[in-house]
Each structure stands twice: as structure tokens, then as C-alpha cells.
Amino acid sequence: MQEDRINLVRPQMGTSRALTVRRYGKVGSGPKAYFQAALHADELPGVITLHHLEALLKEADAKSEITGEIVVVPFANPIGFTQYVDMKPLGRFEMRSGQNFNRHYPDLSPALIEAVASKLTQDADQNVAIIRAELRRLIAKSRKDSAPLTDLVDLRLTLAELAIDADYVMDLHCDWEAPMHLYISDHNWPDAADLSAQIGSECSLIAEISGDNPFDETFSRPWVELRRVYRDKFPIPMATLATTIELRGDRDVYDDYAIKDADNLFKFLQRRGLIKGDPGALPDAKCDATPLSGVDRVMAPHGGMVVFHVEAGEKVEAGQELGYVLDCETGQKTTFSSRTNGVLYSRIGIRLIVPGGYLCSVAGAEPLPGREGQLLLSK
Ligand SMILES: [Zn+2]
């Protein structure tokens, strides 16, 4: 294992930040996997999971069982880690810009399409190597184009540089109150069905483009766009599997979950040939993929307090009463429901709600009217 600290651009004179990066296996020895946790800095289930995964990786490394390259950024957001207000960590948005830490990553697709136009061949493996070389060049170029660099942009580009040529990109997040679920490109499905089954995902959401460039799509989207443009002329595999894994809710920081989750990720790496050993039989899948455009986001009809009648992870019917919002001053009490049958896979973690505030999400099997363009929640 090799540990590096990468200094980030200073946010201001008199202060500094750095990213810790640990590497297992050997560069270029086989497939590359990239893991990061806490890009939303108040989401800690991924941090404890990587803590346990790294214990397994160290053991495998000592026995020379790592046949690929595995890069781990155990906590990906030193900016967000320092944002505390009123005794609460605020890690989803950068406080200075108001920007979501998991949006606004570079879309390298347009430049990539041009850059590889005269280089692609009839050999799929050769094309993957050519495309990855261009992706490395283009991400370095985006850094030059971003001057003067802020610490937030530097963080985004540094993380993207570490993952840009990986075969597997695993961005570990969590929801507020939720069962295990994941987001992934529909071009990675059903290839990623083994990952979904191995980690016990109860809701696997697929979309081609989900909007506002989240981290994982920096790595999947270039392949999607290239395949669309060149599919009749050149063989281009969907060479990168990039996913956002939501490790339940933000308070689900427990060893029993994290040890099992780490073990499952380790087995996935074994199954995909990055680590020697038998991962055993694949567990039965708990869900099939459903479209992100089939998610009904249920919002509060007015302000007040929310009282839920269903737990996160339950299957619900369209029109079923999921709970109510109560304005105790006026006595207004309004029940709410979903437009679709499906699994209620996400529930807000607070109970004091503003008008139009987010309440919960239900994942249905069919796209819903009006669900296009921006498919993720908020900025
Ligand atoms: Zn998150």
C-alpha cells in the first residue's frame, strides 16, 4: 500500500487542506477500481465502510492477492468536513458558493468526441486505451482552463483526475433515511446487476443522463456519448462502470452494516478479477433496475411537521397514504401519497418542513410524466 497526501489549492492565506489517497496493487497491472467516501461530507457510512474495506485490502495486499489497482480516497471532501453550524455538520453544499459538492463535474464528452475522431480503430481494447489516454489529457486540460482555481474546483478536478481512467468508480454516499440503493448509467445495466445483488441493493436506479453532472457521470458519460456517435463505425465497449452507492441513511454508521458492506465490495472486486480468491455464489437480487425517470419525488403541500406512516424501504401503492403534514397553528392537515407503485427508498431526515419541501421518494417501474431533464434532487 502506498499513501499519498495531495495538497489542495489554499482557500485563503494562512490555511491549507490535503486529500489522503491510498493505493493497493500496482499501477497498470490490471483493472483499476476507484473508491471514495464522504464527497457529501456529512455522509459517514461510506467512510466506515472504506475503513473496513481497507483492512481487507491490506490483508490481500500482504498476501500478494491484489491483481489489479485499487485507489481509495477514504474521505473525499476536506472542505465540507470543516463546515459546522449550530453543532451540525453541513456537508452537502459548499457554504461560500452554495454549490452541491456532487454536481458540476466536467463533461469531457464533446472534446473527447473530437479528440478521438481520427484515432479510433477496429480493435476494442486499443480503442479503450486511446480513449483513456485522451480522458487523462482532457482532465488535465480542464485544470489549465479553470484558472484562477478555487479550492472547490481544485477538489473536483483532483478527485476526477484520480478516477478518470478507472474501470470501476464507486462513489459512496448515503441518503437521509433509506435502504441500500444505487444510481448508475442505463448503459451499465445489466452489466452491474452483480454489484447490485452483491451489495443487497433494494432499489437500483438507472438513467442515461441525470442532470447537473454528478461525480459518477464524469466517468460513464464519455463512453455513452462516444458509443452514440461512433457505434456504427468503431467497437467501443462501455469500459467504465461508475456508480453512486447510497449506504442507507446518514445515521446508519454501524460496524455490522459496514463490515458486511466492505465484504460485499471486496467480493465484487474478486468477481471482477481485481483480487484473487473465490467470492462465492452471488446472492439473489433484491430488486431489478428501475428508471430514475420513474421516481416520484413527494413534496410538502404546505409547511408544518411531517408524520410518516411508512418506513423507508417499504413497498407502497399509488395513492396510498404515506403520512401527513400538519400545521398546528391553523389545524391544516394534509395527507400525501405517491403517483406510482414502488419502493419508498428515501425519506427526509428532519420533521419540520417548509412549503414545497422534500418528503420522500418512491421508485416505480415506469417513467412518470414530467420526469425529464433534471432527475436528481435539487442543485
Ligand atoms: Zn450524498
What would the keywords be for this entry?
379 residues; alpha/beta; Aminopeptidase; OB fold (Dihydrolipoamide Acetyltransferase, E2P); 9-stranded mixed sheet; 4-stranded antiparallel sheet; 7 helices; globular; binds zinc ion
What features would you describe in this structure?
Keywords: Hydrolase, Metal-binding, Zinc. The protein is built from 7 helices and 19 strands. It is of the alpha/beta class. The longest helix is centred in the middle third of the chain and has 22 residues. 43% of the residues are buried. The protein binds zinc ion (ZN). The site of zinc ion (ZN) has 4 residues, from loops. The site of zinc ion has 4 residues, from loops.
SSE layout and pairing:
Blueprint lengths: L1 E6 L10 E8 L6 E6 L7 H18 L6 E5 L10 E2 L2 E2 L19 H7 L8 H22 L5 H13 L4 E8 L5 E5 L7 H7 L4 E4 L9 H14 L10 E9 L5 H17 L17 E3 L3 E5 L4 E5 L6 E2 L6 E4 L6 E4 L5 E6 L4 E2 L4 E6 L16
Parallel strand pairs: 3-4, 3-7, 7-10, 8-9, 9-11
Antiparallel strand pairs: 1-2, 2-4, 5-6, 8-10, 12-19, 13-15, 13-18, 14-17, 15-16, 17-19
Helix pairs in contact: 1-7, 2-6, 3-4, 5-7
Zinc ion binds next to loops.
Summarize the structure.
The protein is α/β, with parallel strands linked by helices.
> Which term fits the overall shape?
globular
> What's the number of structural domains?
2
Uncertain segments are none
| H/E topology pattern | EEEHEEEHHHEEHEHEHEEEEEEEEE
Estimated structural class: alpha/beta
Instruction: Give the CATH H-level superfamily of the largest domain.
Output: Zn peptidases
Got a strand count?
Answer: 19
Q: How helix-rich are the residues, as a percent range?
A: 25-40%
Protein name: Succinylglutamate desuccinylase
InterPro entries: AstE_AspA_cat, N-alpha-Ac-DABA_deacetylase
Cofactor: Zn(2+)
Keywords: Hydrolase, Metal-binding, Zinc
